[in-house]
Amino acid sequence: xxxxxxxxxxxxxxxxxxxxxxxxxxxxxxxxxxxxxxxxxxxxxxxxxxxxxxxxxxxxxxxxxxxxxxxxxxxxxxxxxxxxxxxxxxxxxxxxxxxxxxxxxxxxxxxxxxxxxxxxxxxxxxxxxxxxxxxxxxxxxxxxxxxxxxxxxxxxxxxxxxxxxxxxxxxxxxxxxxxxxxxxxxxxxxxxxxxxxxxxxxxxxxxxxxxxxxxxxxxxxxxxxxxxxxxxxxxxxxxxxxxxxxxxxxxxxxxxxxxxxxxxxxxxxxxxxxxxxxxxxxxxxxxxxxxxxxxxxxxxxxxxxxxxxxxxxxxxxxxxxxxxxxxxxxxxxxxxxxxxxxxxxxxxxxxxxxxxxxxxxxxxxxxxxxxx
Length: 372
Hints:
By secondary structure, this protein is mainly α. The chain folds into two domains: 61 residues, Helix Hairpins (Orthogonal Bundle), CATH 1.10.287.110; 218 residues, no CATH class. It is built from twelve helices and six strands. The strands form three sheets. It has a two-stranded antiparallel ribbon. It has a two-stranded antiparallel sheet with strand order 3-4.
């Protein structure tokens, strides 16, 4: 029943007037017509109506007026014994009864046994109705909460899998950036060598070794775009309300925080701009001065070695890109640490939830045994 009060924004034990006022206020606030017929408001309004009906029934049942019949009768019996000296166990004529006992008398005589039997029956029927209504509403509420709890736990497990996929994706991306960084760093370090093969590198070993020009791979840019399907799903279905505040903050940073923004910016927009400058230099200057420019062939880099070495614009362009690779790597390592921390926190929350168990839709949390 406490959940019903909470749905209406009330504390347990609120008055009937407070219940009515809260209901009227919420129905106006959650009216789907005033909220673009959003299904979310329809669902919330239905919960408010259910809570109001349940609390109204509960209030009526728990506030019925009635006297203590046995106590009233005992006082009356004392008077009769004092003045009449009769056995209260016998039937008493109606004319000797007070107005209260006459209400519970059928026929022309009052019988204590009949009175007690009828009183017992009324009490049993009252509690049967009260607990029937109470348990029905409570179980419905617990069933709803239980279903949501199960869905939320499954969503958290999907989120954990996606975070693990982000780790794998990030590791592979770091490996790619590191490979290109090492390749272009070697080229930058050898730029001034007096050798026709200065712009060539060797890949492989022994009979499988072959020469290639590192700068022929220079136009490749790698956007950073990790998966985020599960995260977008939990944003829409309300699972965030089920999460720890710290974890929610961590997830927000991982999926839409400033670190991710700068990684994407440096990994694509900034890196692509550097590559575009490289391509423009070749198109605007090299083609005009060298004529046939075929950067995919090794002989082009050998034949034009001195010309390329003297193009300090290209040399500086490589230097800029190496610096960008360093910045991307640092940001990726920071991002990776955040993902690992979120997985660890999510693991602890899932472990806690799985240690709970339900008894007819009631969740039992044993952590309170460890609290002082």
